[in-house]
Amino acid sequence: MVQTSERLASTAAERYLLVYMIAVLVIVTSLVIVFFVVFLKRKNKILLDKVKQQQAFEAEIAQAQTETQEQTLKNIGWELHDNVGQLLSFASMQLSILKMQVADDVKDKFKDTSDALKDSLSEVRSLSRTLNNEVVLNIGFEKSITNELNRLKKMKFTSAELKIIGEKVDFKDKKHEIIIFRILQEFLSNSVKYSEAKNLNIILDYQPENLVITAKDDGKGFNVNEIEKGSGLINMKSRATLVNATLNLASKPNEGVELTLCYPLYSFLEK
């Protein structure tokens, strides 16, 4: 009986010890898991904070670059309007005075030069307006695009048209208006310099949640993979990032170029 009691007591003690060890093991395991989860969360938070800080830093750099570029363009616009414009006006006036002092059979020879000066003066004034962001804001986004297309049409294109779909929505953030206009200017400038296109077309599609802008030319196109790292495309994409827009450039040799910009309307709609 004594031995049986001792065995029962020993068995109970072993059972309690086993339960205790299992409980300790469960607690330790739980603590390790909790510690690991907390560690991962802190690590992920630190990494996320670093990413956000890097993105904020890059955004600030891009914003500073954009503001510097805008000020530079404004200064160039003033220079063109005030100085170059005045010189061309003076040259045109002097040519008119000289034309009055020559014989009638010589006056016709002044016509081509006089017309060239007048066209140059008109072009300089038109260009100076598109470079000045205050002028762009004053006349409006769509009118600025129309003026730019009209200016380019006079230069070399057979047609340069703007089409508007949907109901117009005014920009809440005027800086976004300027940035998107500069993206389109960059595209149009590249079309002038490289595309050998005859026709330009821009579509503003005001959708319920997005403004989708499509700009096309019918030029010689290019291989997108070869131009992917070009400064023009990088500049356009960095500007698009500043306004939370997505930008895509599609082209193939001999098939022209198409730019698609999707700008979220909620970023400038009144709440």
Automatic annotation (TrEMBL):
It catalyses: ATP + protein L-histidine = ADP + protein N-phospho-L-histidine. Keywords: ATP-binding, Kinase, Membrane, Nucleotide-binding, Phosphoprotein, Transferase, Transmembrane, Transmembrane helix, Two-component regulatory system. One of its GO terms (cellular component) is membrane. Signal peptide: none annotated. PROSITE patterns: HIS_KIN. The chain crosses the membrane at residues 17-40. The keyword ATP-binding applies. One of its GO terms (molecular function) is protein dimerization activity. Its EC number is 2.7.13.3. Residues 180-267 form the Histidine kinase domain. This is histidine kinase.
